[in-house]
Amino acid sequence: MPSVKVECVIKAGALIGEGPLWEESQQTLMFVDIAGQKIHRWRPTTNQSESVETEDFVSFVVPRVSGGYLAGMGRSIVAVEWSTQMMTSLVELDEDKPNNRLNDGKVDPRGRLLAGTMGREKRPAEVQRQQGSLFSVTSDLSVTKHLTKVDISNGMDWSLDQKTFFYIDSLSLSVDAFDYDSDSGRLGNRRVVYHLAEGEGLPDGMTVDADGRLWVAIYNGGRILNIDPETGVCLQTVSLPVTKTTSCCFGGTDFSDLYVTSACLGLDQSERRKQPLAGGGLQGLGVKGRPSVSFSG
């Protein structure tokens, strides 16, 4: 595997940087600061950043075919109008669990949003277990619950043929796969693709490259793992100058840049001095990815 050059491209100082997404039409990188309650947009050609503040924890942002964005805020899926900074709640999830919040979310190849929930943390990655679920939301705002008793619903993506859904429930320490029916959105035949040992960190956000391989951010592990989902073998480890790596996505004009988000919340003063880039956006070069998909509504 080729070596990967790593550099900090956005000194965002995010408490919990998460949900990176490359918006191809705008040639911008979107990401959120969950605890900082902000949605960020960064344009690499000009190195200009913009942000929108939210009223609650914001866990992901995705573009809409109809314009604007969808974001996960608190337990609600909200429509975001960037120019006016207006937000409109569209649907609320986990209505019977007021202490839950949304976490990772991503749009499937057919334009359906998948979004997961979790209990609110007492401290980073410390939650009441089995409180979360995994949902899908269609363009008419119909909601389907697919999984229950989830600890921390996290990374998700699809195989190149759209027949496999990859998913992470972080405290299980595993990356799982499901058979996926892209017409109906149904999941089945859950199995483990890769399992981390205790003490290696928590699998967090992930993405799939142009060869169908997984790139998984390891929270409290300071690295990204490149995993072959067919064999369950880790092909490459990319070490990073921050321990709380949270997620990653491909972007850039030819999708050869791997963007990585990170967090600084939970670091003590000594750790922050040793990790001045924590909470920033990192960029690794020399890998090839694929475009993201917009929500169909």
UniProtKB/TrEMBL annotation:
Annotated positions binding a divalent metal cation: E18, N154, D204
Gene Ontology molecular function terms on file: calcium ion binding; enzyme regulator activity; gluconolactonase activity
EC number(s) from the headed UniProt entry: 3.1.1.17
Active-site residues annotated for this sequence: D204 (proton donor/acceptor)
Predominant place of localization: cytoplasm
Domain of life of the native organism: Eukaryota
Reactions it catalyzes: D-glucono-1,5-lactone + H2O = D-gluconate + H(+)
Binding-site list for substrate: R101, N103, E121
Domain SMP-30/Gluconolactonase/LRE-like region as annotated: residue spans: 16-263
Cofactor(s) required, per the database record: Mn(2+); Mg(2+); Ca(2+); Zn(2+)
Gene Ontology cellular component annotations, sorted alphabetically: cytoplasm
Localisation per UniProt entry: Cytoplasm
Cofactor: binding details: Binds 1 divalent metal cation per subunit.
InterPro entries: 6-blade_b-propeller_TolB-like (IPR011042), Regucalcin (IPR008367), SGL (IPR013658), SMP-30 (IPR005511)
UniProt enzyme class: hydrolase
Protein name: Regucalcin
